[in-house]
Amino acid sequence: MRQSFCPLPTLLAGFVAVLVGYASSAAIIWQAAASAGASTTQIAGWMTALGLAMGVSTLVLTLWNKAPVLTAWSTPGAALLVVGLQGATLNEAVGIFIFANALIVLCGITGLFARLMKLIPHSLAAAMLAGILLRFGLQAFASMQNHFLLCASMLLAWLIAKMAAPRYAVVAALVAGSMVAGLAGEVHSETLSFALVAPEFIAPHFSPALLLSVGVPFFLVTMASQNAPGFATLQAAGYTTAASPLIIVTGSLALLLSPFGVYSICIAAITAAICQSPDAHPDVAQRWRAAAAAGLFYMLAGLFGGSITSLMAALPGAWIEMLAGLALLGTLSGSLYQALGQANERDAAMVTFLTTASGVTLAGVGSAFWGLVLGGVSYALLSLARRT
User: Fold this and answer.
1) 46-73 b/e with 16+ CB inside 10 Å = b?
2) Which residue ranges traverse the bilayer (predicted)?
3) Which of the listed ranges 45-49, 133-137, 223-227, 328-332 does the model predict with the highest average pLDDT?
4) Most exposed: 21, 185, 200, 204, by fewest CB within 10 Å?
5) Is the dihedral of CA 353, 355, 360, 364 positive or negative?
6) Which residues, at least 6 apart from 100, have a Cβ–Cβ distance to it below 8 Å?
7) pLDDT value for 63
8) What angle (nearest 5°) sits at the alpha carbon of residue 263, between those of residues 323 and 304?
């Protein structure tokens, strides 16, 4: 009987994992969808589809493996889409989702994941991600100029929580910013809605230039910055789950639901760690229950995707920009550290970083792709020079 009981801390761990996931990423997904010209209703449909997809995949994988396998959307991938989808149509965005998710499924079926990651120096992949994320950090602090009180209160709440309870720093910034925006009369309550919003089917359109400039970097970022850390977190917690089946299941579900706005489903790392910790359950064999609870909370959040989206629309843009910047600060600093950690790879990594951050478009292909190309050429030539 005890084995079937889900204690309150276990249930709470699942709830907190979902809360942290939404608090740290929903604003970025909103920006990505808006970049492609999605309406508020269409974005609400995306949030509904994403929540339900993550709930189903988390429950299936957790119950199947009897391990805390939590799934998530790709936050770095969404950050890339904010930049890459500028000027693109929703149909072209869906084409990118299908293309990238098909590559992920192919990696799972063929076992190419590990081999593919070895072809790209880790420092260059980290530099590309840092270049993509730089604009979010700059945008967050630039928003202080016109919304100082709002942004400063969010930063202060984030810093205090970082000292006391680092895991909830983004949640603290979210709450503080919401309170200050409400007190300042900056919340447009007339846009709030609690209606259920069904996902809308969007026919794909495949643009070769966008598939190359956005689809390929999006695929690489998702695999290197989301799935790889997710597996590492799972293994570090003592769970020896096979990688390929997880990639196939998450990639296939994302591929199936891409026309409804499910741009990615990945193995979670940060939020999964909440469900994999001793705080979730003292027995390592029972921590899967926290992930199962998270799956149910994901599905519940998905049903209220319209409410989450209307809340985003009601809050000022500076709130979204600051929250996104703070949520990605750790990923940005970690990426820069990894990119510049090896002295003999530092120059090539800087070429990748600066090219990606520049936003340059050449032959219709975006900066993330050219960052990898120029960084790769620099890496090869400098490595050759060191050997001769």
Assistant:
1) bbbbbbbbbbbbbbbbbeebebbbbbbb
2) 44-63, 70-88, 94-114, 119-138, 144-161, 168-185, 205-225, 246-270, 290-315, 322-340, 360-382
3) 45-49
4) 185
5) negative
6) 215, 218, 219, 222, 263, 264
7) 94
8) 65
